[in-house]
Each structure stands twice: as C-alpha cells, then as structure tokens.
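Run log // design_07
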C-alpha cells in the first residue's frame, strides 16, 4: 500500500524552491533573530517593495525595533551613499509614520529631503536630527549639502499641525540656519507656539513649570527664531539639553542650563556638559565640550 501522506509531504517540500516561497509568518520568525540593520537587510533581500506583504509581516512583528533609526546604519547594504529613495524605502518598510520616535540622517550628505515624505502627519515622532553630522562634530559642511528647506519644512509643518503630535526636538542643517529663509522662520515661530501650548514638565528641582514660565533667553522663545539679535543661534532649541533632553523653564535655566558648545553648536545641562574653558589670547574655540574639543581645530 502506498503511503499517500508521505507523497503529500514531499510535494509540499518540492514547492519551496526559494526562500520567498516560505509563508510570511515563517520569514517573520526568522527575522526575530536578527539585529535591527540585519533585519532591514534581510527584508530588502526578499523584496524591493517596502509595502509588500512580506515587509509588513516582518515589521509588524518587530515594530519596537524601529522607534529609533539612524539612516546611516543602513548605508552598507544599500551599496553606496544614502539617497532619498533609500530613506523613503526605510521609512515605508518600517511603517515609520506610526512607530518612529527618533530619526537621524547622519552623513546623508546627498539627500534633498523628498525621502522624508512618508513621515507626513506623524503623531509619534519626537525628535529629528537633520544636521547630517555625527555627535560632537561641527555642523558646518563643505561643500554645502543639497538638503532643501522648501521640501522638508512642509513635512515638519504637517507633523506639528497633526493633533496629538509629540515633536519636541528638531536639529536643523547649518545651511538653513545661515540662509534664514522665510519658510523656515515661519515654521520656527509656529513650532515655538506649539511647544508653548503643551504641558511640558520642567526638569528643575521641585518645579513643574514650562508653559507658564517657559521663556528662555533667545528672544523670549523656546526656539530661537530671531534673525537679528541672536543671529548665530537662529534655529536652535533653547529649552532642552541636546544630550539627555531634560527641559527647563526660565526660572530653572540659569541654575541647570545652558552650556553652549562652540564646536557642535548645541546646549547641554550641567549633568551632561563637561566644558573646556580657554582664555588663551590666540584661541578662538571659546567654550567647547570635552568630547568636541578634539574637533575644535578643524571646525573653524
């Protein structure tokens, strides 16, 4: 008597001729053993479509991995410099509009900004770093990168316009802070109003103010949008530490904040900043973070 069950199992095995023939659930289970970047690489090897059923199955199972992304980490498997298409693929594949909280574009020096469109209307994004440089590096880039305020600012504005949005920190490209375009200035003023309307807690000792007393030295704003008096600090977030993101109202700021590093052009609270002070007659580095100090000579 022929064992038909054995033949049936054999036929099922023979139908699997390549890895994409496995059920999506199996592929999702395989990806659970991979690191964040390896999981993305695995997904890209299976399909070029970021919204395919395979992509959705893998990302749905492991969405918590995609709450923080530095696109620079994906550079090796895209085979060259990061492009807007690469960024768009990553954001769509990870369903970033619903899950991503922190985004960095470190060393994405060739992008214009169209790749950020999948983030339009996000209500979960909290922090986005568009400076294009790594930690403890000067934001001055030569040659000037092509990232466009005209393309990216409307995306950022769609986020702060979304009801219940959580965006608190935006680090801008130095290029934009120098150009001071009208579209950026208008966004900064609007962002400042949005931040001021939130119930943000102050990290100062025994203090819970920030909306009522949350005005800082930069023209009385939480975001510096002064194009005249504080021109060199235009576009900077002025109420939060850039390292730990503690936030301080005016009453607590002077005791806890701010140390401003002249190299990375960021503010730090007293817990995060270890500042070098130079009084040399020929020194032009001013105050620098100790971590930034090795870069000081090449940043001016």
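design_07 sequence
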């Amino acid at each position: 008597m022929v064992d038909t069950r054995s033949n049936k199992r054999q036929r099922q095995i023979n139908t699997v001729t390549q890895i994409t023939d496995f059920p999506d659930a199996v592929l999702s289970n395989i990806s659970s053993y991979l690191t964040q970047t390896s999981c993305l690489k695995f997904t890209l090897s299976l399909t070029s479509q970021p919204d395919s059923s395979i992509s959705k199955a893998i990302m749905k199972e492991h969405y918590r991995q995609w709450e923080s992304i530095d696109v620079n980490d994906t550079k090796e498997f895209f085979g060259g410099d990061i492009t807007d298409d690469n960024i768009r693929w990553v954001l769509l594949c990870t369903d970033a509009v619903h899950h991503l909280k922190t985004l960095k574009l470190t060393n994405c020096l060739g992008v214009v900004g169209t790749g950020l469109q999948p983030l339009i209307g996000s209500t979960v994004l909290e922090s986005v770093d568009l400076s294009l440089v790594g930690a403890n590096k000067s934001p001055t880039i030569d040659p000037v990168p092509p990232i466009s305020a005209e393309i990216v600012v409307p995306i950022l504005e769609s986020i702060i316009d979304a009801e219940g949005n959580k965006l608190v920190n935006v680090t801008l490209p130095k290029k934009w802070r120098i150009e001071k375009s009208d579209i950026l200035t208008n966004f900064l003023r609007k962002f400042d109003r949005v931040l001021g309307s939130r119930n943000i807690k102050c990290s100062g000792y025994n203090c819970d103010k920030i909306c009522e007393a949350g005005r800082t030295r930069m023209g009385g704003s939480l975001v510096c949008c002064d194009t005249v008096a504080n021109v060199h600090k235009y576009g900077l977030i002025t109420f939060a530490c850039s390292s730990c993101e503690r936030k301080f109202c005016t009453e607590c700021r002077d005791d806890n904040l701010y140390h401003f590093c002249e190299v990375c052009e960021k503010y730090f609270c007293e817990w995060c900043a270890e500042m070098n002070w130079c009084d040399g007659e020929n020194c032009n580095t001013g105050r620098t973070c100790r971590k930034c100090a090795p870069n000081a000579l090449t940043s001016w």
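Residues 217 and 238 are 8 Å apart (CA to CA).
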